Amino acid sequence: MAPLAVVHTEPLLEEFRAPFCSTANFWRHFSAFSTTLLSILLTFASQGLWLRTNTFPEKPIVRFTENVFFLFETPSYSEKTLFWSPIAQLNEIALAKQFELLVPVIETVHSDRDGDCRADEIEIRIAFRLATNATLPPSTILEKRALVELKGAPIFGSFQSQNPFNEIDIIGDMAFSQQNLLPSYANFSSEGFSSNFSPEAMDWQMRRWAIEQNFSIVLSRKAERVRMTTLQEIGEGVLFYFTFRTRIGEQIFHYRTNVWEMLKWAWIQYLALLVIVRYPIGVLSSFFYQNQIIGTFVGAAKNKMH
User: Fold this and answer.
1) Which GO biological process categories is it annotated with (predicted)?
2) CA-to-CA distance for 40 and 46, rounded, in angstroms?
3) Residue burial 253-289, b: 16+ Cβ < 10 Å; e: rest
């Protein structure tokens, strides 16, 4: 006779019964209560009941609006100070204080290499005369979670050299530094620069203003190059070139957790811990019942499907 193959199996179940007022029944309710309570305590101890922050990666929409601030420092023997800002009131104050206003020539190129309608790189070319301090405030928008618009998160820079130069090249990665959590789902807009700044202390006042904002922008992996090229006379001055190129990658932003997200993560963590805690308690209960450590009555074995 040919050997037989196993085509189907069904386990046999044993029933262990006990009176309502018995140690076995008490242990059944106590183990169920202990499993639930222990899972809640572990969830609470691991802070799973209050996920207060959420972290989301997003590549921000960054546009350069051609608003720039320049402070030109001339040699100590010269009393001429050159100044420029996009705020008309500041320029009027500078003129009243015998500053010379110098209008820069700006060319901006936004490059989108991956076709997601968000700039991957911004190159700014500026022509002016003898600048030593510059501030570039790009406009930045986040829209993946909350709609956030930064009307001026400045990038600061200053340049000094003991040798004469008339061209500066700067390249770096744009990195956002966040101070406070963003709203979970809401609109948030930062205010731009104020016209109350003083032209003489503009650099210091703008740095103080930037520190008080939620976002600041820094250049990571920055490289600079200064050099002297062929001088081009423009009237009584010398043309000076400033080229700024920054790469814009995916950033990490932190948001507040709303009620539904908090409940969702608390429920997921509770269920995970419940499964973990329930297994050893179930094994211990089976050991007690099967070895008659807790008195029970064993019923007839029957098929699980019936």
Assistant:
1) cilium assembly; regulation of protein localization
2) 10
3) bebbbeeeebeebbeebbeebbeebbeeeeeebeebb
What is residue 160's predicted lDDT score, i.e. its pLDDT?
65
Instruction: Report d(CA 249, CA 174) in Å as an integer.
Output: 7
Residues 20, 25, 30, 32: is their CA dihedral positive or negative?
negative
**pLDDT tens string 44-60:** 777 666 667 778 888 88
- Give how far the C-alpha of residue 112 lies from the chain's centroid of Cα atoms, to the nearest Å: 21
Residue 119: per-residue pLDDT: 87
pLDDT at site 305:
53
Q: Would you state the pLDDT for residue 34?
A: 87
Contact predicate 276/3, CB 8 Å: no
Task: Classify residue 47 as left (phi > 0), alpha (psi -120 to 50) or beta.
Answer: left
Residue 140: Cβ-neighbour burial (10 angstroms; 0-12, 13-18, 19+): buried
Residues 168, 124: Cα–Cα separation, whole Å: 12
pLDDT at residue 77, rounded to an integer: 46
* Beta pairing class for 302-303 and 12-13: antiparallel
- Alpha-carbon span 98 to 79, nearest angstrom: 10
Q: What gap in Å lies between CA 113 and CA 121, rounded to an integer? A: 8
Q: Which residues of the chain have pLDDT under 50?
A: 77, 131-132, 233-236
- C-alpha span between 277 and 271 (Å, rounded): 10
pLDDT of residue 248: 86
* Secondary structure (DSSP) of 107-138: EEEEE-SSSSSS-SEEEEEEEES---EEEE--
Name residue, tokens 């429920």: 267
- pLDDT of res. 236: 45
Task: Indicate the pTM of the whole model.
Answer: 0.56
Tokens of 240: 């000076």
**What is the sign, positive or negative, of the torsion defined by CA atoms of 102, 83, 62, 188?**
negative
